[in-house]
Design goal:
Blueprint: H1 17-20, H2 27-54, H3 70-81, H4 85-95, H5 103-107
Length: 108
């Protein structure tokens, strides 16, 4: 997932309800899909951040020594400045980048 290319807002914004539920004609179904995608994005970001921070990990038993690593601080600041997972998911939904299917319709 390329987080630099996503054009999601950094702060809270109001969305047009009709645009959100246009694909499903059901606001609750649309929100459910967005919430599931948001959880996926959150786990991807968390996994990516942990992998990057493990590169800087030092395994000392000494609690007295604290090392400040500038690269580690920059990585952390980058992830702090990213839009929240729910904002990313809503933007993907509005851009039509989320694939979904209703399994109840397929059973008929």
């Amino acid at each position: 997932m390329d987080l630099k290319k996503i054009d999601a807002p950094l702060s809270t914004t109001t969305y047009d309800r009709n645009k959100v539920d246009a694909k499903t004609d059901n606001i609750y179904e649309a929100i459910s899909i967005i919430a599931k995608r948001s959880e996926q994005i959150n786990s991807e970001i968390k996994k990516e951040l942990i992998e990057k921070l493990e590169e800087f990990a030092t395994y000392n038993d000494s609690l007295e020594e604290v090392f400040e690593n500038k690269e580690q601080i920059e990585v952390s600041k980058f992830y702090e400045k990213l839009p929240k997972p729910h904002a990313l998911a809503v933007q993907e939904w509005l851009d039509g980048k989320i694939y979904y299917r209703n399994t109840e319709e397929n059973q008929d």
